[in-house]
Amino acid sequence: MQIGNPLGDVPETLHAVVIASAVLVPVVVLLTSFGGWLIAARALAPIESINSTLRAIEATELSKRVEVRPTDRELQGLVRTINGLLGRLERAFHDLRNFTTDASHQLQTPLSVMKSTIEFARRRQVETEIPPLLDDLEEEVTDMSGVVADLQTLSLADAELQPAHLADVDFSTLCFDAAEIISALGEARSIVVQADVSPDVRVTGDPHKLKHVLLNLGDNAVKYTSSGGRVLFRLRREGGHAVLHVTDTGMGVAANELPRIFDRFYRAPSANGGVRGAGLGLAIAKRIIEVHHGSIAVSSTPGSGTTFSVRLPLT
């Protein structure tokens, strides 16, 4: 005995399914594609907005910032990073423009003096007037050389420490020597320079670069301290570090200027009066300390003085 179902309606059913599929599948595919396009367009719209903003930003117009909607939470972290980078670039370009202006002025002035002095000497040719003219030339050449030397030192400070230059440095002796040199500068202005240094504090590093830092901090302290003031070099061991404080009783630095005091080419407006410079000294000092795996910080009270603190790992 055999049991079966009639097959008469099967071909018609299959034909109906085929026709329905031929109509519905393209519609479904089209709707799915359109929906996917809408979703992708909505998802990529913030990316395109970021891209358009970044394309519109030029070196002369770095104040623009990328914006996203509060609902685009996934992109907010990226946008904060991009805006932070743009902020740093804006400050760097601003500082570079200021430095270019200052450097060109500082170089142009001594060149003009040198040129006029030479022309005067050629016209007069009087022997008794030559020494003062030579003194003027020497002073201007010294100023111009100082700017060039700062630029060269900055480029060298950016380089990592070379093993051949590393040594076991007697930081105590280095501080004493620097204080003695700075004391000679202070005597001309009746500024007392003192050294309160713990003995045999040793660090590993480049002694020439470290001495450059000490002389720079001491020179700054004397420059910005009035006659009759005091500068103190104080070195101690604290934990596994050598800690140096260079303190002066000078004019101090305003609180809003302290965050930028180590920036390249930056000169605090409150400390510019009568003191020449390109704003590179502290940037160089900071970089040298950083490549020695140390840190440098500053605290100041306007009208009372400033303290620079250097921390270096002990040997």
Task: Describe the model.
The chain has two domains: 86 residues, Orthogonal Bundle (Helix Hairpins); 151 residues, 2-Layer Sandwich (Heat Shock Protein 90). The relative contact order is 0.09. Helix content is 55%, strand content 15%. The chain contains six helices and seven strands, in the order αααβαββαββαββ. The mean pLDDT is 79. The termini are far apart. The chain is elongated and about 120 Å long. By secondary structure, it is of the alpha+beta class. A five-stranded mixed β-sheet has the order 2-4-5-7-6, with helices on one face.
Topology (elements, then pairings):
Blueprint lengths: L9 H47 L16 H52 L5 H29 L8 E4 H17 L4 E6 L4 E4 L1 H17 L6 E9 L2 E8 L32 H11 L3 E7 L3 E9 L2
Parallel strand pairs: 2-4
Antiparallel strand pairs: 1-3, 4-5, 5-7, 6-7
Helix pairs in contact: 2-3, 3-6, 4-5, 5-6
Task: Please sum up the structure shown.
The chain is an alpha+beta fold and 315 residues long.
Question: What key phrases describe this protein's structure?
Answer:
single chain; 315 residues; alpha+beta; five-stranded mixed sheet; two-stranded antiparallel ribbon; 7 strands; elongated
Strand coverage percent = 5-15%
Cα-to-Cα separation, first versus last residue: 103 Å
- Helix and strand composition category: alpha+beta
Poorly predicted regions are none
